[in-house]
Amino acid sequence: MIRIPVEQVQDVLAAVFIRIGVAPERAALSARLFVETTRDGVYSHGLNRVPRFLATIRSGSVNVRAQAERIAAHGALERWDGKKGVGNLNAYAAMDRAIAMAREHGLGCVALANTNHWMRGGTYGWQAADAGVIGICWTNTLPNLPPWGATDPRIGNNPLIVAVPRPAGAVVLDMAMSQFSYGALASYRERGELLPVDGGFDREGRLTRDPAAIEGSLRPLPIGFWKGSGLSVLLDATAALLSGGRATHELGLDPLQEVGISQVFLAFDPAVFGPLGDTVDRIVASLGVRYPGEQVVRIRAENLAKGLPVDEALWEELRKEAGR
Question: Is the pTM of this model over 0.85?
Fold first, then answer.
């Protein structure tokens, strides 16, 4: 593992995206979103995800020239078509529009169909909180989680993000409907570590803390057992219904073909009722322990000071892709 300055990594990554056909301005934004994900310590969905992202472009799953557009609207609710474009750019544009509507109406909702993997879902929560609004967003996924009572994957681990702004540091929850996301499982496996608690079942149906065994069985535990399973189903149904897009059972099983997924982006502007006051500060102070998002702020500061931790082989691969 080596440390590379943020600006240098972002410059190389933007060059990679430009070479594969992304317009320069959009390449710079997509690169920034990937880099910020690594900067904030979500390594599985940052730079480490770029080779897989490039593979989806080369396979035709992602159309780098497509841009999401509004196809229907009613008040503060809009329906957008992602046109199978770059997932993090589609999601960023959708949350940006939800924020703009929240400024005007107090709330805004963009339901996005026909898009691709958004990478780190927390990105769009932080986007909202940094704009001073409450952000809630979620996505459906390919079937990668068994519903409660089943042994084969039929529902998605459908990440859900809730973000609340606060001057001292936003409170941001970014969670999958599985106890450990597949990205987290991969990170534990690569570090040679067991999970801190049981995270799913092995192929013989035994609860295990072994991340590789869970990846092999495709049987992660849903959060809260049957409650997480039910929440996954309802998030999927709401996203598909509002966006007019596809539900999890209509998606394929190949991660490189995770195309045409549905997402929802909500923004609420509490400032329409007056100054925010110290409500959230008092809630955080009452906890006495770490609040959601606090570790992100700490890791962010460390990586900005020391440079991004990057696998040396991956860095050389990215430089080669960039023609450097």
Answer: yes
